[in-house]
Amino acid sequence: MLNVKLFQMDTFTSANYEETLRPRMESAQEKLLKGTGAGSDFIGWVNLPQDYDKEEFARIKAAAAKIQSNSKALVVIGIGGSYLGARGVIDCLCSPNYNLKKKSTPNVYFVGNGLSSDAMAEVVELLGDDDFSVNVISKSGTTTEPAVAFRFFRKMLEDKYGKEGAKERIFATTDKARGALKSLADAEGWETFVVPDDVGGRYSVLTAVGLLPIAVTGVDIDALMGGAASMMEVCRKSGYEENPAWRYAAVRYELYCAGKSIEVLGCYDPAFRFMTEWWKQLYGESEGKEGKALFPASVEFTADLHSMGQYIQEGQRILFETMVRLGDSQKQMYVPMDEQDGDGLNFLAGKSMDFVRDRAMEGTLLAHTEGGVPNVIVNLDGRDAYSLGQMIYFFEFACGLSGYLLEVNPFDQPGVEAYKKNMFALLGKPGYEARKAELEAKLGG
Ligand code: PA5
To answer: Residue 420 catalytic?
Structure first.
């Protein structure tokens, strides 16, 4: 079972902070479990690992099998919460090089997560003549980036397979009743999957949003949900020893109050990179409001020890680290013996790469802690679907607790609208004429 260890934390925290925070932690827990806190319309994810739609879950598996049988590639169109979780899980469990591997499952390309023409053209080029399907994901059904990308890939499908053939290859994941995408899907007869009303984008990886793309790669989504369900049971408990989400939420709040302003999430495996991107959205969007919150950043060790290591060790003392440990590697490599020993590395001959990595991990932990960077360690049982399901639920639950400790609504995102209004105005969207003139004058000035 996932656990949280605090390394030599006493030097950075006030005495008994966990006990001091206990009543507030109990209240935060109650808000999540009973739906009595701010944003309680969006806590459908709390019971989701057990209370999910089993009929839809079976349809997700059937759709994944259909895509596996008729497509060499799946184009996944979505942004933010409609993209990062699936990409994180696929990279972590199948490798960031998944598309380059020899395999019987389709390649997965993520588009609609930005507005780069080159990035989209590259996916078109990589698809070539391959048979492909599209999973377009947008809860609102109106987000510009995925909507624009979908125009391109829908047209490609319809040109290649005709309207009827394309219908068999378009899967829309969206609101059950509202939005342009839902209306379009109903009108065109595409198969649809639902983003539940009470689950916000960044908490939606364990819905069809994440599950369909993940299932297409062959990852065991039963195990993913099983891991999340096991953590859901743990997170219902009260107490720091019993519930790792309590320990994590409390220490990050305590460190924030003690003057830390940045939390750096890291891992010693490059495959974890997009899980850190998912985590950054989860915490950044849930907590970054009313002028409050830790800034969520990320590193990939040991690579970033050679770029960010200097700052972490000796820069402004405003950071703490949360390191995710994935356990043993699936494939163990051993350092070879070299008769000449020209590089002087024979003292490592016969040692596993995990052994070398673990010593780097311990050395870094000690150096950073001594350098004034507190370390929180999140230990996973391994790098498999079950463990990752546990971790996803753990971070989500801790985020809810943490947001309530901070006294913000962890489930809204009013700040994401500001750039959209400006973009629409500058693009000439009807209804934004006055704002357009105003913005152009500012830009011109
Ligand atoms: O968490 C969120 O709410 C956002 O990141 C959204 O997921 C993102 O903006 C995409 O929105 P939508 O799924 O409505 O296209």
So the answer is: yes
Of 176, 292, 351, 420, the active-site residue reads 420
Q: For the purposes of burial, counting CB atoms within 10 Å of the CB of 332, is it exposed (0-12), middle (13-18) or buried (19 or more)?
A: exposed
349/66 Cα distance (integer angstroms): 48
For ligand 1, whether the C-beta of 208 sits within 6 Å is no
Per the annotation, the verdict on 34 as an active-site residue is no
Q: pTM score, two decimals?
A: 0.97
Cα 358 to averaged position of ligand 1 atoms, centre (Å): 37
Q: Is the CB of 79 under 6 A from ligand 1?
A: yes
Helices 144-167 and 117-127 cross at an angle (nearest 10°) of 20
Cα(416) to centroid(ligand 1), Å: 9
Rg (CA), the chain: 23
Q: What is the pLDDT of residues 352-361, one digit of tens each?
A: 999 999 999 9
Q: Please report the pLDDT score of residue 406 as a whole number.
A: 98
**Which member of 145, 277, 285, 321 is catalytic?**
285
Ligand 1 atom 2: residue of nearest CA: 201
Ligand 1 centroid, distance to 279 Cα (angstroms): 14
pLDDT at 313 over 80: yes
Closest Cα to atom 9, ligand 1: which residue?
80
Q: Residue holding tokens 């048979």?
A: 131
What is the longest distance spanned by two Cα atoms in the chain? Answer: 76
What's residue 417's pLDDT? Answer: 82
| pLDDT above 90: residue 142 | no
pLDDT band at 420; cut points 50, 70, 90: confident
Termini Cα distance of the chain:
58
Ligand 1: centre distance to CA 234 (Å): 28
Q: How confident is the model at residue 327 (pLDDT cuts 50, 70, 90)?
A: confident
The encoded tokens of residue 138 equal: 């947008």
For the question of residue 306 being annotated catalytic, the response is yes
Q: What is the pLDDT of residues 151-166, one digit of tens each?
A: 999 999 999 999 999 9
